[in-house]
Design goal:
20 helices; 70% helix; single chain; 3 strands
């Protein structure tokens, strides 16, 4: 997958090519044919190529007529400054374009959008929002302006505003309805209500989320948490089982919650049956069961403990640490005590080294987050089922 650095390098190549093209065209003309505006651009390009950005800016923002090539050079220059983190210079370039009275409407809207991007990069959200709101009805910039406004609402946790904006986006972009974002926004509101102990309101938000996306894994998890808070452990069990069956990559997170719900409902035997059925359907789930058993001291199901023993036997490092050959011939009580000691040690290691990773951009975090802090994609962060001494990206 291309990295951010690769995209940045590609952007620099594009901008360099654009600047070279304009420089070549203008460089073929003499001073009289160029006129004052053309001379300013030649000087600006030369300053830019000599890495004198302030003098280049002064030349580029000198009042004068702009043609198609010089306008595109303005945009390329502003983008270059923004990519390099020189946001103040990017703002100056785009403001200069907007302030020109004879600029065509499409170019003015493009400059407004670019300036909004500058403000977003600088953290000036209010200014960015004002510009983007003006562009919502633009035939050229409207869709992207709506997307940026939605992102702003996400950053500021204005979830009802995000829902409103996303519905507006869906009216002009049919693909937006398939993203599942509205269901996530409603789940965010449900989580807020649950934490405020307003369970009826949380349920109301979840019912709306179900209308937006019935098969949402997150919806089932939040509904399970609300059910547990309300003492409805039977519903919590059903929800957790549904998630475990639908999204095996979340087993490490779900199994401890399912185990707790079964204990609260007095249904330990049902948890055992679920583990048996799970392993019968997919033996590869044994690793996730073992890892969940390491993390949660409350899981004492015999089949789950067997998965933990198999996990230890399969790892040469762990076998050496616990003297696996000697333990295999030891009495049952001694083996059980040794297993519990190893389990506690592994729990400390797992808690220290456990991490989650975004499947899209690779961003690593210490907890499950429904929106990746790195790339802002939803429902792409998953646990890495591995211990600190293990290699690989499980």
């Amino acid at each position: 997958m291309p990295t951010e650095a690769a995209f940045f390098f590609a952007g620099l190549l594009f901008i360099a090519a654009a600047l070279g093209y304009v420089f070549a065209r203008l460089g073929q003309l003499d001073d009289e044919e160029l006129g004052p505006s053309g001379l300013d651009y030649v000087r600006g390009l030369r300053f830019l190529l000599r890495e004198q950005p302030d003098r280049a800016l002064e030349a580029f923002t000198t009042p004068g007529e702009l043609d198609e090539d010089t306008i595109e050079t303005h945009f390329a220059l502003g983008q270059l400054f923004r990519k390099r983190g020189e946001v103040e210079r990017a703002i100056r370039v785009h403001r200069d374009l907007i302030d020109r009275p004879n600029l065509r409407r499409d170019h003015r809207e493009q400059a407004q959008f670019a300036l909004a991007e500058d403000y977003l990069s600088a953290g000036l959200f209010d200014r960015a929002e004002t510009l983007l709101a003006e562009l919502r009805g633009s035939p050229r910039q409207g869709i992207e302006a709506l997307r940026r406004l939605i992102r702003l609402a996400e950053l500021t946790h204005e979830w009802e505003r995000a829902i409103e904006l996303h519905r507006e986006l869906e009216a002009v972009d049919r693909t937006a309805a398939r993203s599942g974002r509205v269901a996530h926004y409603l789940c965010e509101l449900a989580e807020q209500a649950r934490l405020a102990r307003n369970l009826p309101q949380a349920i109301a938000w979840l019912d709306r989320a179900a209308q937006a996306r019935q098969d949402s894994v997150r919806l089932a998890l939040v509904r399970a948490a609300v059910a547990s808070d309300a003492g409805d452990h039977e519903q919590a069990i059903r929800c957790y089982q549904r998630v475990a069956e639908r999204e095996p990559s979340l087993l490490v997170d779900v199994l401890p919650r399912l185990s707790a719900a079964c204990r609260a409902a007095g249904r330990d035997a049902d948890f055992s049956r679920f583990i048996e059925d799970l392993l019968a359907q997919d033996p590869r789930a044994a690793r996730a069961v073992a890892f969940a058993t390491i993390l949660d001291p409350g899981i004492n199901d015999p089949r789950a403990l067997a998965c933990l023993r198999d996990f230890i036997r399969a790892d040469a490092t762990l076998q050496a640490l616990v003297d696996g050959e000697r333990l295999a011939s030891a009495p049952e009580a001694e083996r059980a005590q040794a297993l519990e000691r190893v389990r506690r040690a592994l729990r400390h290691m797992a808690s220290a080294g456990r991490s989650y990773r975004c499947l899209e951009c690779g961003y690593a975090s210490a907890s499950l987050q429904w929106q990746c802090p790195g790339c802002a994609a939803w429902d792409v962060v998953r646990p890495r089922v591995r211990l600190a001494f293990e290699s690989g990206d499980r």
